[in-house]
Amino acid sequence: MKRKERYIARLDEVRITREGEYAFIEYQEEGVPSTRLQIGPEITGMSDAEIIDLYNDCLRAQARRAAESKHVAVEVPLGSAQIEYNAQCDQWVPRGSVLRCLIDDDEHHQAVIEIDEQELPLEQFGRLLTTYAGWGMRIEFVPEDEVHRRPVLEVREPEAEP
Fold this sequence. Notes:
2 helices, 162 residues, alpha+beta, three-stranded antiparallel sheet, elongated
């Protein structure tokens, strides 16, 4: 399920409260995350309309920065660990943003994902994926001996099997 994103809002679409130098902006729409916006001492002289204008300006600036920057996926070099165990979170976490892995199954026909010779049952692999909750993911299936290479990609409908 895709999370709802913050959006440019009108004053009647949010509830604004103040605490010290911060404004809390809560959308009326359920599921949209609220925001704690640090403004500073000038908040005492600002109307709700001025606060929502400032907040919307922040959202516009974030959108401009996102549009101007290009995401670069980081792939850990061959021979370096792709995942590491984080004791504080009690789970495996990726070191980069690309994982080379093998798909297998156990004696109960449950999926097991192997990364760096570490076998992760589907539940552990799922927890590892939550490190990137809110992101998208592409999966390219390749032969076992080619996981270190990007495959040739064709965009087309798969051929029907006889």
